[in-house]
Write a structure and sequence with these properties.
Elements: H1 4-17, H2 20-31, E1 38-40, H3 48-60, E2 68-70, H4 78-87, E3 95-97, H5 105-117, E4 123-125, H6 133-145, E5 150-152
Parallel strand pairs: 1-2, 2-3, 3-4, 4-5
Helix pairs in contact: 1-2, 1-3, 3-4, 4-5, 5-6
Amino acid sequence: MINNNIHKKIAEILRKIGTEKCIEKAEILESESPRVNSIHLRDLTLSSSNLIDIVNCLKEEKNHHLRSISISYNHLIGDSSAIFLLKNLPESICEIGLVNCGISDVGGIEILQWMRNSTNLRMICMEQNNFSKKLKIEFNKFSVSNPQILVVY
């Protein structure tokens, strides 16, 4: 169960961003039950600094059981903030969406390392990023050796 304070804090960040989509998502977060164990922030034009603020909210709350997070279709995220997200996710994460987040091989290598160390991961979607063919081969090797995890790249 995620503490409802996390939703409220993330909603505050989204309201400060001020776009129509962010305000709509803030309203949804504020109305969600505290039992919701996912945070999906897809297609909100989040910047790298916005994501860092959101991750810092997640870090403040130690007793949550976040199972699913998506920041997909926020193409301004980039490598450094995607890496920051990965380094600060709780072990409870089972699903993560990183589709079209402006991530290159720099972030992709960190994603691969995180995947190798994750104990609960069941699905990761990260297509439409800027991964090299060489890195995609590594993702494929991981996928083949870990068939219990759906890896979409």
